[in-house]
Amino acid sequence: MRIALAGNPNSGKTTMFNALTGSSEKVGNWAGVTVEKKESTVKKLYCKNGETITAVDLPGAYSMSPFTSEESVTRDYIKNETPDVIINIVDATNLSRSLFFTTQLLELGIPMVIALNKADLNKKKDTKIDVALLEKKMGCPVINTVSTSADGFSELITAVIDQIEKDQTPPYTENNVDLSDIEAVKAADRKRFEFVNAVVKEVETRKVYTRERNIHDKIDNVLTNKWVGIPFFALVMFLVFQISQVWVGTPIADLLGELLGLFQEWVGGLLEGANPLLYALLVDGIIGGLIAVMGFLPLVMVMYFLIALLEDCGYMARVAVVLDPIFKKVGLSGKSVIPFVITVGCAVPGVMASRTIKNERERRATAMLAPFMPCGAKIPVISLFAGIFFNNAGWVSTVTYLAGIVLIFLCALLINGITGNSAKKSYFIIEIPEYKKPSFKGAFKSMCGRGWEYIVKAATIILLCNTAVQIMQSFTWSFTVAENANESILATIAGPFAYVLLPVVGILSWQLAAAAITGFIAKENVVGTIAVCYGITKFINMDELVLEGGASDVAAIMGLTQAAALAYLMFNLFSPPCFAAIGAMRAEMKSAKWLWGGIALQLGVGFTVGFAVYQIGTLISAGTLGAGFLPGIIAVAVMAAIITVMCITATKRVKAERAHKKAK
Amino acid sequence: MGIENFIIIAVVAIIVGLASLYVYKAKKSGKKCIGCSSCGSSCTGNCSSCSGCSEKKQVNNKKTDF
Hints:
The complex is a heterodimer. By secondary structure, chain A is mostly helical. Helices cover 62% and strands 6% of the residues of chain A. Chain A folds into two domains: 2-205, Rossmann fold; 230-656, no CATH class. Chain A has helices at residues 13-21, 69-81, 95-106, 119-124, 131-138, 153-163, 182-203, 215-223, 229-247, 249-270, 276-294, 297-313, 315-329, 337-343, 347-352, 360-369, 379-389, 395-419, 440-474, 489-505, 510-518, 525-534, 551-558, 562-574, 579-589, 592-622, 629-663, and strands at residues 2-7, 38-41, 54-57, 85-91, 112-117, 128-129, 142-144, 204-205, 540-541, 546-547. In chain A, β9 (540-541) and β10 form a beta hairpin. Chain B starts with a helix and ends in a 9-residue tail after the last helix. Residues 40-66 of chain B have low confidence and may be disordered. The chains are: A mainly alpha, B mainly alpha. At the A-B interface, α2, α11, α15, α19 and α25 of A face α1 and α2 of B.
């Protein structure tokens, strides 16, 4: 038996799906978190007759006429796959808007049960809904539910089972609407709203009306104010990084690092008499590489916890509103903010979230630019370099995120120039959720879920990469032991790429090139590979997460100055993301040209930013330009020339198109 | 071969084997990204309504390319 969970965005579908099935799909207090359908089996606890029920969580939709591609997923699934029963999740605090979609679903004739969700919020506001009367009006069972506490779920599933194979009569039908005539469709929608409003008037008794100004509006006056909103957002994000990466995350990371270091020492002690190659493979390669990545787990988890709190309280939707006017200036809109915010956690769902954007150019640009926001996987890289070269300074994280935002703006302008779309306007409409006290339990669960995924990644992808790196740097192509690591397989593969990095780091280092390459598999690999190649865990004081001796000793070990270290960090953060995120970009862009254009742009941006940081930094600190300036400036000039030609071509094309239109 | 060497080879083989098996199974079940939360694992490649697959049909859509 298959049941579909359908309803308006932000009505609590995924929260209900997670509670019904025990899944841990991403939830958020804003519209458009779910962009794909998800399937899972309902817990036996709710299936009293032992039947196996598969629940399908669908993206939110306002009507059966899809506006965006994720709404099409919902429409197509319900129409083509015909579930046995639909659970229509209705936001009880916003009945008139929700019932529009309900009446459309009922017209399909599929058995349906209405879950009147967020019933607890109605109680608080003393809003009463006559459930029995609503049942009569809609012609299907209506159950009060609270997704966050699983209230009413047993009754809901019982009602679902009762509804199987029953006839569903629609309370309202629209026949013979000419869908090609927009005025006829609008008139039909107005009639449907009239019907819905008449039903709501009969079943609902409100004490607090939405037109009345309340405390939420007063808070919004401040937080969404065009002068205060952005500085406040910057302050909030600074605090998130400061708390996660300095105040709270680091002390916990110190403790974990100490424990992991003791484990490595213990294993090393047990295997002292082993073959040095095998010893290095297990103790330095596998365990050392894993420790280097796992040591940053607390920082990542604390940040996920704080982001989950911000998402849950309703603030993030306001951020989209605050940033909308600025993003519009560069051809994007507030709708792009949500993918950018989600990318702070992980670039893959962040890129996928761009699906909610209807405008094709804007959607592709958002998918292309989202990876500029440093994701959770880049936190270990940022923290390692901040800890080693900048005495654990909190400003490094903040600067990298601010640089990401600035690059998004600049690259959005570039995309406008290249595509010739600077004159086109974008519209942004978002439903703002009410403020609520964030759920610490929910944020803790989200943090644990993401922390677990981080551990899984470290124990699989990162571990395999570290093992491969250790083997490749121990042997030559003739499979003899490499006397000198510079003759190893890894050195010969990564060596040519070291020339690309010369203008960014000022030295030819195959180790840094290898780390950047493995970073395309997963960004945490940058840390793992550096640890394996340099045996860096021997030099890091895991208690303090700093290199013993400070930056001057690091220069001796890695051959990097502070400017070069910051430049290399920037290169890794702003060059193309991991392969999984590139796959997501491909899926959302649906164009090979845009995909390859995006990858080229990211590579160009990563190189240019790294080059600029290293050369300017070296000029300030040493009074001279860094090594590799000439080839670097030539590469940047070539890239600038290509972009200029593309912009000129696009401008000419747009002008020709306008002239052609005028002539017509 | 000393006992230490045998232990290391066995441990490395088990660790790498288990990690590879996990990655293989995850990829086979359609997981797009291992270790990324909410990255979806539902697309099996044969559901008509899933936009993940319809992407293949629309790959030639170059209406507003560069």
